[in-house]
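Let's do one together. I've listed all components of the complex below, 734 residues spread over two lines.
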Amino acid sequence: MKKLISLLLALTLVVALAGCGKTPETEVPNNETPNNETPEVNEAAKDMIVGFIYVGPIGDGGYTYAHDQGRLYLEEQLGVKTIYKESVPETQDVEQEIRNMIDQGATAIFATSFGYMDYVAKISKEYPEVAFFHCSGYLTTDNMANYFGRIYQARYLSGIVAGLKTETNEIGYVAAFPIPEVVRGINAFTLGAQSVNPDVVVKVTWTSTWYDPAKEKEAAIALLDGGVDIIAQHQDTTGPQQAAEERGAFSIGYNTDMSTMAPKAYMTAPIWNWGPYYVAQTQAVIDGTFTSHAYWEGMAEDIVRLAPLTANAPEGAAEAVDAATAKILDGSEYIFEGPLYDQAGEVKVAEGVKMTDEEMLSINWFVKGVEGKIEQ
Amino acid sequence: MRMTKRTDMTTKKAVFIRTSAIILALLVSAIFILLLGHNPLDVYVSMIDGAFGSAYRIKDTLTISIPLIVTSIGILIAFKMKFWNIGAEGQILMGAFVASFIALNFIELPKLLLLPLMFVGGFIGGGLWALIPAVLKVRFDTNETIITLMMNYIAIKWITFLQYGPWRDPKSMGFPKIANFTDNAILPKVFGIHAGWIIAIAIIIVVTIFMNRSKRGYEITVVGESVDTARYAGMNVKKIIITSLFVSGGICGIVGMMEASAVNQTLTSQLSAGYGYTAIITTWLSGLKSIVVLPVSILFAAMIKGGSFIQTAYQIPQSAAKVLQSMILFFVIGSEFFVQYKIVFTNQINKLVKEVKQ
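Okay, and this is what the predicted structure of the assembly comes out as:
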């Protein structure tokens, strides 16, 4: 018996040693990183550790993937070390993960989902020397910035493509949670579609998920069964795209270029380009110039884009999108500018009036032409 | 080849089997880590470092072990009776539900009154939820494994309903979240770890004494060994099953109260985080001995924490870290089979038969 144990032990050692030989460049875990959370301001970039907290897996082909591309871009540009944690639920777990990252030496943390907000705000007060960045929320603290992009601009453009393409004049929209961000996106998309096709109706279904491919696909199928011929979405997966592909319908993606996921259906997508922001902010932390802020920029800063149109896109779409893009960039197309009507047809924003950022960030009503209900 | 129940198991043999299982697990996992492009020894060392490497990490590991310990103790009482309570997950949630109801509706109560009230509420919530399968069992002889398991999903859906519907925080701007507890509903920290650890130790002591020294504890063991014997000895088997299940579920409900109050500081449908299922394993590995639950749960918590640590330290995908943990589990649980049974090959059987004939 003892012989067996020692044999097994020896084998373990052999395998382990073989590992040493094969991968000498394996990174040593940062055991030596001080745990006292007092980083020096002028650390070299390569000594800095930046943490990323994701709500889904990096292979989701959508939202988290887009953030992770930003993280990789950051590593490549600045040579900082990054660590990340996937599929962190929007519960107290995020607090735990942030503590773990700080314990492992992180001095800047990007928390990339709406539901993390309260927890990040709370923990930011405990670690005043760490820079926190929360994506898509509205709270800031002395050392917690919030950042997001005006993705509604790109959604407006994608609405143009869908509005030109639809034959039934009914477009399905698989929506996540009834929070302002999602509502704003649906409105912008609808306004875009209506700008080229006033008869368009956008039917909304809620899934109450960010990442549940099966459920989101099912929701898209239900919409398709209800007569829509184009599917747009606001989740982090490609489930709705696959539904459109299988049913021979067309689709607008989200987050990243999804053309490979649904080659026969996918037309374009509003997409994220987080890399430059991550580089700029990390550099600010390294230089000691980081200050808390609320960042909400759009196509002008290239943080959001419309993905290239595929061959599925309708004729004339490219020209219409280009024209609208130019107007967005020069400020003549504001999108949320009156007259805007709510679902009942009442004037919500008078002619010539532009909604303020605060109004857009807390929008909780649908524009005329949207079929769906916002649970209050 | 056939399997026979072991009668010759000695402590020495059992230790040998378990040790080789762990070594085998490490060996197979090492190959897996190699395939991922990392040095297995480094990763193992880093797992231990991640779980125990600093005061902060030890605290974190212990915090994870608290719900495991208490849930295991709760399950243990049912398992001793051979009542297979797979429903700890649901009992935790229902305990959390009642405790949260109290926390959210009696905010003006002082901490010293509110917390004990939540504690009792958690116990009753979990206990009543466990009572349903117990009553069904004694009245209709239903299969408790299926019923307790199915009731988990009912509990999860119930909490989800509250979270998305009537209990949703109106201040959350449409996001499905229940309001956070006020400070007086949050368990204080003692030596840097939430006071749940004191509750856990107290529960271990009480249950150990209860199981080994009290009449009811003895009765539970007898019911577990043989219902007929218990009946013959004049015990009220139905009453024993029902009251013990109430206590079993109640202890799980306390976990819900602790997790809601100290860890999440609110109620969510993800509150239990699978502790109800993990605790089945820790209970089983403890050999249904309440004292042994303590080290087993802490080791298990270390594995969870260490597995989480290597994900960020080595950028190993979450799924791969889970595979690692599962591999270790598979071998350790698998080894229990060899502790209980041995494999006899046909020629050996023939030899045995011959010997007997002679």
